[in-house]
Prior knowledge:
Blueprint: H1 3-15, H2 20-31, H3 34-50, H4 60-79, H5 81-85, H6 100-107, H7 110-118, H8 122-133, H9 138-145, H10 149-168
Amino acid sequence: MNDWDAQNRLRFEQLVLPHVDAAFNLARWLLRSRADAEDVAQEALLRACRFFRSFHGGDARAWLLQIVRNTCYSWLEKNRPRELMVEFNEDLHPQSVATPESIAIADEDRERLSRALETLPPRFREVLVLRELEGCSYKEIAAITSIPIGTVMSSLSRARRQLYCALANPSPQGGRP
């Protein structure tokens, strides 16, 4: 291994590896399967390592999460193409007066919130996970998803509304979302 490779390896370990948990978390929420998320996150890390020479600074977390996101969508297109086409039908989920936060807090039931989040289409899950669970800024989400900040904000709004509907109106199967 030459010096340049050793320097890049050290730089990769310092800049990218601290974000492995965030990478897995995003993959888990997009794919809704721990085993699939482990495989895809590993593939994304291999891609990140392979293309690390093209990383010229900036936000390493956003760069890695963009790779994870792209790897997830490639995996979904290959393995579950129909899932990408499913959209949330707002007519089937009328709004009530409670908010997602008040429902989740009142019920103290994280599983219910997780299941409701999993009912959302992948693109809405991703913006919610990036913003609410990973704490990404709108600018970071825009960079990760390659969409304008305005679209990030409107997607978050729609995702929150759909999450609200899923929490406010439990699914008929089993009485829970």
